[in-house]
Write a structure and sequence with these properties.
16 helices; mainly alpha
Amino acid sequence: MAKTGLLQLLKNGRFEILLSILVGGAGYGLSLITGASYADPLVIALIFGILVRTAVGDRRQLRHGFELASAFFIPVGIVFYAMKHLNFDRLAKVDTAMLILLLLVVLVYFAVILILGRLTGQRRQITYLTATGSAICGASAIAIISPALEAEPDDISVSLLAVTLAALLGLFTILPFLATLFDLTSSTYGILAGAVLQFTGFVKSAVDNIPHLSRDIPPRELAALALSVKAVRYLGLLVAIPLFASLIRKKIHIPWSLWAFLGAGVCGTWIYRHDSGFYLETLTPIITPIYSLSWSVAMAAIGLNADIRQLLSNDGIKAILMAFGGFAAATATFFGGLYLIHSL
């Protein structure tokens, strides 16, 4: 009976699932065509979904199929994403002082956005999604934690677009200005990008297009340094997922997404430890497009199920203010902590 029910659900939602795959695939394909590291496929797929939804109007009878698409493709992305990014052996190589600084930056990100969310009366789901996306890993973090928060499509789209706007301003304006103002070396700029920028692709773009700074390490080492710093922030999901899931339900709750994320990370670490060449040269090139495409389809489904009016509502404006406030505070914390490290 249960099997029959599942097959019926899939049959009833096959048009919506197919449309999500087409729209998500288009978003992923565009990111590949542009070749720009800041062209995040999840954001593009979400925007495509919202545009298609706006063009065809509200079709409430299709909502179930889109929910089914995101419910299937998000878990697939979680597993493969963790296999690549939650590598405990590689994270252990980061300097202790840098770990402390990163911890402060992440805590400030969370604290400021949570406080702003409380002061502005923002929906808790939007507040938690914006905080997690800002402090950890942009669209990927939002995709991972959204099932645990039982977030609605509008919550996810509002949060993701707010975080993206703050990240774009930081990448193209704020960080280059501060780097020039304080005459940072390329390595310090790479650490700054890895510590405060929300998207992994944005970190890559930052170190590939640094301002006219003194280069104290080769470009390849600079990229590895920035990305290793960014990778440490992924650990924040191990705390954020159960914490916010419990706050939403007002009781202790350990969601399945945490176990999937942690288990896949342990599996990826084991493979890396036993054959790092296979992990880096064979496995990683395979799993990266799998989770990117899976989440692009999920984000397309979320966009197809979202209401564009919510993006322009008070919740949307408040989310933007929260994302910008968190980024400003985290950046200030980084420079303050860097000053203390150099003073000791």
